Amino acid sequence: MSITVADLLKLPSLRQAKVVAGHGGLSKIVSSISVLESTDPGVLVDEVFPQGEYFGSEIVITGFLNMMDDVERQFVNLKRLAEGGEVGLIFYYVGVFLKKIDKRLIDFANERDFVLIVMPEGDVTLRYGEAISDVMELIHRDRADHTFLVSEILARVSDLPPHQRTISTVLKMLSDRISASLILCDASFQILHLIAWPRSEETAIKRGLEQLDAFPADQQSTACTIFPDSRLYRFSIPAEHGTEMELLVLKEGVLPDGMILTQLADVVRLGINIWGQERSEVAIHELIRAILQDEPIKMRQLSNIFHIDVANINEMWMLRCDESQIERFRREGLPLLRDHLGHDSHTVVADLYEGLAVAFMDWIERFPERDVIARDLAQRLGEAGFTLSLTCCYPLNNTSDVRRTYLLHQENIQTALLIWPCRDSYTLQDLEFASECRRIMGESEAALTSALSPLAVLKNVREDNLLIQTLAVYLLDAGSSVTSCAELLFLHKNTVKYRLNRIRELLRHPIDKMPELSYLYRSVALHRLTAHK
Fold this sequence. Notes:
Layout: H1 5-8, E1 18-21, E2 32-36, H2 41-48, E3 58-62, H3 71-83, E4 88-91, H4 103-112, E5 115-118, H5 128-145, H6 149-158, H7 167-178, E6 181-186, E7 191-195, H8 202-211, E8 220-224, E9 230-237, E10 245-252, H9 258-276, H10 280-292, H11 296-305, E11 315-321, H12 326-342, E12 348-353, E13 356-361, H13 370-383, E14 388-393, H14 399-419, E15 425-427, H15 428-442, H16 445-452, H17 464-477, H18 482-489, H19 493-507, H20 516-530
């Protein structure tokens, strides 16, 4: 939903109105319109709008007819409306009944970006119904055209004062949005939050749920006897770090739009994780989920909430630790990871996702070489008792790159571990190479034989196994270093030099000659993989 206060001012019934305060709130989203004319001003403040409650992003019509000469009461009511999440007031009959808008109200509205709109002054022919009809028609049209709930609710809640950013507020917004009652329960269907539609039906809904014999299956619905012509929908909310919850949706009359229904559970899960438990780790998890699932709209909304400049993030590191160490890594490894990367980057966003530790960051210009940082990080985590593999992927230009890279890692990291078992860390290019090797291994026997052909000449000599083993360690593990190769094979350097010279003689070209080297490198990788088939 995208209707703002500024949009309302273009409607026929409001074209002649003028904004007298709160211009900074013209971009606020409007969910509905209501009328405020209480017979007892004290009832409005103390009962209708309780302290600290969220009432909804409404625009409110009033003439302050019951408090025309009581500026203090006007101020108290206006303040309560602003604190409750209302976006503004439309004043009728100024210069007729209400003499003027007091400066105290104007100053407060400007301070809070609470829009004050005055209809043409001195006009007794104005009718509330005209504005109500125009506004609601515009909102209904917009709801039909815009059915993406996640960005709408995230934007609206994040604009509220901190004390109103709660799961109860999220449920109220959703209830108003689809004109249905929402009930959030624990796994045993004990009610945690109930937002009735209409609000006055809360007691009837509680009583009706207690009398139900059974609830529908997840993502299913059944006819419901709580209200005539109503259905009860159920959506299970998977647990992240807490307990599983159940969302029940009770809807009368016209069935809700299917696309809207499919988004409900996701919006509520987000609300629980970001605002329901006040746990920043869970909230950051939602941002990482949005990035890895390539959901740019949700990602932008979440990054605004957490004040993270996602546009500058161009690198992703993934750490795959032993499954038995996952929970300990959550407690001890993640803080170490964030601290280590935080020394060389402006932004670090890190959490566990599907059993994998994922970190996104941007780099400060002065940072040392990545392999130095990666080696030091692997060492620190190893000293802490973690067994893991580290993959550093860059540059990543957009969320599609991130999603593709994440899937590439999940599909090929095991192959990479077999090709380079001595490595502390891997790169995006390593994953792509491992993917190519897997493709060849999955093709015909003829394709694999062809890819292994550079080694064929080494298999027809007495020392074939020793030569191929030495070549594999030299190229894959030792970085073409004779010294490192000798250390890994527990041999004297001269022995390694002899074998490499023997390989050159048999191949009839230098080992480091391109493009032959690229085929040779792939051959020894495939040879190593075939040993594990």
